[in-house]
Write a structure and sequence with these properties.
2 strands
Length: about 350
């Protein structure tokens, strides 16, 4: 297994390096390095503080979602959340989304399917908030239809952005429909009846085989559905839903403000807070495309596309986007590693095991 984990990690690092090359192949290295040297890095400290504050708010929100099915303390939620986001930064496939409930199961004995459901519920708030901001962006920002940035097999332009937005909207609808189906008793019972009737599809087999299918497959799957349902218990508490919506507004507002603060120390990035927020939203929708660990490359390409819309030169846009990407990612990686050490979690093993189960 160690060999497979090593190959998995090397593949991620190689893909990240290739993605960065694709993003910056048209930017002279000397110009990029010159820009990075010219940045006033004093602004890093408040920017990092804002990044970490947004994650603290994420912990509070996840606590509220979790407490409907299982009460956990701040630190019991903090460590799995930071480990999950850190894994997304260093490994491909966004395995951090499944590693987080895996850590929760390992340390707090909360069923994996319940934890996974709470992560899905959390994503509903994030995706919903982003879609609202994206709709405002399309109405208020004039995106040049001729602007096109090539990134590997992708053409980052208005059409791609709208397509990514449409795909995200479909994902949100799918999540909401799925939550509704498993959260209400009648539909859940219907799903469970369908699952338990699977052995009867093998009408040509003996009763022993049918019992084996029922015991080894159907009963565990019904148990998974029931545990998964408990992770969506939040739907029974409108007041908690409202609190989570409010926290989501603050999370994304603070995240945008961290981008804005970092921009204060970057030459050539003289944009208003609303324009920087639009820049963040565009990056978020472009990184929804299949990408590498930490979204290296596609983040930079999307960031340059967004800043060029507001008249920023390609050189300044590339330098700021790369520096800000590092500021958004490295604190998460560092804190996640500390959380892994505090909780004695082998992050690569957890990630690999859950990736194998998911596939």
């Amino acid at each position: 297994m160690k060999k497979n984990i090593t190959i998995y990690l090397i593949t991620g690092i190689t893909a990240s390096a290739l993605a960065l090359y694709l993003a910056f192949r048209n930017v002279p290295v000397s110009d990029l390095l010159g820009y990075l040297v010219s940045i006033n890095y004093v602004w890093i400290f408040p920017a990092v503080l804002l990044v970490l504050t947004s994650f603290v708010l994420r912990v509070f929100r996840w606590q509220i979602i979790l407490e409907s099915s299982a009460k956990v303390s701040f630190w019991q939620a903090f460590h799995p959340l930071m480990i999950g986001f850190m894994i997304n930064c260093i490994l491909p496939g966004r395995v951090g989304e499944v590693a987080r409930p895996a850590v929760l199961q390992k340390k707090e004995n909360i069923p994996f399917s319940t934890g996974l459901a709470t992560v899905a519920a959390e994503r509903v708030f994030d995706v919903g908030m982003l879609l609202i901001l994206f709709a405002i962006l399309l109405v208020t920002v004039n995106i040049d239809p001729n602007l096109d940035i090539v990134f590997g097999k992708y053409h980052l332009n208005r059409e791609t952005l709208v397509t990514a937005g449409g795909g995200t909207f479909k994902l949100l609808l799918l999540l909401i429909v799925g939550i509704i189906m498993v959260s209400f008793g009648k539909t859940r019972k219907a799903i469970n009846r369908v699952i338990m009737s699977i052995p009867y599809l093998f009408f040509f087999s003996g009763s022993e085989f049918k019992k084996k299918i029922q015991k080894k497959f159907c009963e565990p799957l019904v148990s998974f559905v029931e545990n998964f349902t408990s992770g969506f218990a939040l739907v029974k508490y409108p007041s908690k839903i409202c609190i989570c919506i409010g926290l989501s507004v603050f999370i994304w507002g603070i995240a945008a403000f961290s981008y804005y603060i970092m921009a204060q120390g970057c030459p050539g990035i003289e944009l208003a807070f609303t324009e920087i927020t639009a820049h963040m939203i565009i990056i978020c929708f472009f990184i929804a495309l299949p990408s590498v660990p930490g979204f290296w490359g596609i983040w930079e390409a999307g960031g340059v596309f967004a800043l060029v819309l507001f008249g920023v030169s390609s050189k300044d846009a590339a330098g700021y986007t790369l520096a800000n990407h590092a500021i958004q990612m490295f604190p998460v990686i560092i804190v996640g590693l500390v959380s892994a050490m505090v909780t004695s979690v082998n992050i690569l093993q957890v990630s690999y095991e859950k990736r194998e189960k998911r596939s």
